[in-house]
Amino acid sequence: MVALVDCNNFFVSCERIFNPALEGRPVVVLSNNDGNAVARSQEAKDLGIKLGQPLFEFQELVDKHHITLFSSNYTLYGDMSNRVMEGLRQFTPHIEVYSIDEAFLDLSRMPYDLQEYSNRIKKTIRKNTGIPVSVGVAPTKTLAKLANHMAKKHPRHKAKGFFILDSGNREKILQEFPIGEIWGIGRAHAERLQKHGVQTAYDFTQLPERWVKEHMSVVGLRLQKELLGQQCLSLALIQPAKKGMCTSRSFPKKVTSLGELQEAVSTHASRCAEKLRKQNSCANQVTVFINTSRFNEPAKLYSNSITVTLPTASNSTLKVVQYALQGLKLIYRADYDYKKAGVFVSGIVPAQQVQQDLFEPAVNDGLLMKTLDKLNARFGNGKVQLASAGLKKEWQLKRSLLSPHYTTCLKDVIKVSIG
DNA sequence: TCTGGGGTCCTAGGACCC
DNA sequence: TCTGGGGTCCTAGGACCC
User: Fold this and answer.
1) Separation of alpha carbons A348 and A2, rounded Å
2) Is the pLDDT of residue A363 over 90?
3) Residue A35: CB less than 7 A from any atom in strand C
């Protein structure tokens, strides 16, 4: 059996731990640049605020119902996530951290009563971290996702916060489960399936394999088998190395000048190089991309990217920035209002396996980069940077509603006064 | 006026190999 | 009318996830 443990309204729950007065009140966490809703408390969901909805669309509700808003505080959420995952590892080392707020646990060797075990996971995580979680247990990952959905949403089960799906109740649950809610069925497939008369997960399991293969490739076939209780997706117990890494940000205002774009690209490229060093790897390619707002009228749309291949794979900030800026010059067009810039590194190889150039001497700024990383770790991210990353950074994120870094910064630690 | 930031996998088609 | 039989690698685009 597989368990999926998923944090409830994760970002909102993180904020509430350090601000308990928000318990029972509507709370929304916004995306970067305070653009749209990325997490909502149950009370905010009940007011009709949708996931991904832009703030300007529900500002009226905010004023009327005194909804508390937060900018995203990923430093806090990342740290709280680590605490939750560490807590889960106490139950079993066989765990796949699937996203910032959920993990699959392999329970195949667990002799315990699953009801009791799920309940204990839920209670322990809540007690030790303050985060409420839901637990879904089933024979496959896809069914565990479904079981988790039941644990969170189903009127009869959500009070318990866990749900066990097995051969005894599987078919009945599939018959009541809407096709579009299945993990792996997105909007496009849901629409096509509904047109084909498929309304529930059960209907989907009854489709001929030929049809599924033709319209949904092997991905659909796997999904079908998983729903029937046959494991096709294994747990990734070891994190596979990333194939590419991206750093990108939208601008809070329109950016037109090459100078400002260069600052942003230099900043993002530096961050990519840091990420490469952190996992001890190097990249062979650097891609830089810029685009205008996708909501612009067609005449004002522009989006372009370019991939530069490095002579030798590198994780040096100097190199990654240099090639990213070279690329930027080639795709920059004046007369556009840019909304976003980003850098993507790919062709990733372990740092020990970099193929050196036969004729060029190897650049060795490893010590410099190590020093840079140490300084930034000690004095704060971005304390030491390249001049090209700019000092004013007027293009930088808007985060006017940011909560303190309660768990990762000494000056932000909560003060308690007694008496 | 205002709309996020990351990732993965699969397929088809083209270029190329012997 | 008929035009071999295998392969690999790369890319773009589409679908999905959180």
Assistant:
1) 32
2) no
3) no
